[in-house]
């Protein structure tokens, strides 16, 4: 796809990966409707000014991705502003505590509502316009945690997104619409703040998004060093059971999350 002049929708646009993706698309000449919750409106407006400085256009839109009416309004805004939707980047997402038992029922529901149903609904809303034009590119942001189940309901949501992405890719392939799943490992973001500043920049994911729009692929794992552990997780799942089934590993995995939540170490 030629990105110059293309029209994009980017959810989760105020976050580390989302804002990096918006800038990367703008540098290629793509315009965008950029969406995030109401609390992020100042960040969206500042990002829109950055996009303008890069020579593209961006329209900030407040979005609760769990509300279908707001998703429909988002797509309508994109069609009204740009006349088409060429690109959908589903980046909105939240994490969870590694232990399922540490999550409340409300947290379980919210993770699935944002990470899985939010992507399903945005694709459902945008696909009629893409199918009518027989072109488009959809990029969903999964996680390597969707390849190895070690992160509670978060892993479940990303496993589900992997299946959904595969299904939709096959459903719309004959319409010339590409659907790509990008699975990042740990990158520098507020979600991973406890891991310090030594993590890769979210720009590595943004570059993968631009590449996937130009040339859709089934799945992209970034940074590339995560390809080996993902291969092992799929080839030898029993090994993952042994390693992550060890009580000491589980304690280490959950310690920081429990202390941050005020549960204290276990």
Description:
Helix 1 crosses helix 6. The radius of gyration is 18 Å and the shape is globular. The chain contains 9 helices and 7 strands. With 266 residues, the chain is of the alpha/beta class. Helix 6 (203-214) links the parallel strand 6 and strand 7. A 7-stranded parallel beta sheet has the order 3-2-1-4-5-6-7, sandwiched between helices. The model has no long low-confidence stretch (mean pLDDT 93). The chain has helices at 16-27, 41-53, 68-82, 105-133, 152-172, 203-214, 227-235, 237-244, 247-260, and strands at residues 7-11, 31-36, 58-62, 87-90, 136-141, 177-184, 219-222. The termini are far apart. Helices cover 50% and strands 14% of the residues. It has 2 domains: 7-227, Rossmann fold (3-Layer(aba) Sandwich); 236-266, no CATH class.
CATH topology of the largest domain: Rossmann fold
Helix content: 40-55%
Number of helices: 9
User: How many structural domains in the coordinates?
Assistant: 2
Q: Using DSSP, what is the number of strands? A: 7
Largest sheet: 7 strands, parallel
The end-to-end distance, rounded to whole angstroms, is: 51 Å
Residue fraction in strands: 5-15%
CATH level 1 class label of the largest domain: Alpha Beta
Order of helices and strands: EHEHEHEHEHEHEHHH
Shape: globular
Give the overall average pLDDT. Answer: 93
Strand line-up across the major sheet = 3-2-1-4-5-6-7
* Parts with pLDDT < 50 across at least 5 consecutive residues: none
**Which secondary-structure class do the elements indicate?**
alpha/beta
CATH architecture of the largest domain: 3-Layer(aba) Sandwich
CATH-defined superfamily of the largest domain: NAD(P)-binding Rossmann-like Domain
Specify Rg, calculated over alpha carbons: 18 Å
């Amino acid at each position: 796809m030629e990105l110059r002049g293309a029209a994009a929708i980017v959810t989760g646009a105020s976050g580390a990966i989302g804002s990096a993706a918006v800038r990367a698309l703008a540098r290629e000449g793509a315009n965008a409707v950029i969406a995030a919750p109401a609390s992020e409106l100042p960040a969206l407006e500042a990002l829109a000014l950055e996009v303008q400085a890069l020579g593209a256009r961006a329209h900030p839109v407040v979005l609760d991705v769990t509300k279908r009416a707001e998703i429909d309004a988002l797509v309508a805004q994109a069609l009204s502003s740009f006349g088409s939707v060429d690109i959908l980047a589903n980046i909105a997402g939240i994490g969870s505590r590694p232990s399922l038992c540490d999550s409340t029922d409300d947290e379980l529901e919210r993770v699935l509502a944002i990470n899985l149903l939010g992507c399903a609904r945005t694709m459902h809303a945008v696909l009629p316009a893409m199918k009518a034009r027989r072109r488009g590119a959809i990029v969903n942001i999964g996680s390597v945690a969707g390849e190895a189940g070690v992160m509670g309901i978060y892993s479940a949501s990303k496993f589900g997104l992997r299946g959904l992405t595969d299904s939709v890719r096959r459903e719309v392939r004959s319409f010339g619409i590409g659907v790509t799943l990008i699975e990042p490992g740990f990158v520098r973001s507020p979600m991973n703040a406890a891991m310090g500043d030594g993590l890769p920049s979210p720009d590595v994911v943004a570059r993968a998004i631009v590449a996937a729009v130009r040339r859709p692929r089934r799945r992209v794992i970034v940074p590339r060093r995560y390809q080996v552990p993902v291969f092992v997780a799929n080839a030898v799942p029993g090994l993952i059971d042994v390693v992550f089934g060890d009580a000491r590993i589980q304690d280490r995995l959950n310690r920081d999350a429990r202390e941050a939540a005020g549960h204290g170490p276990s």
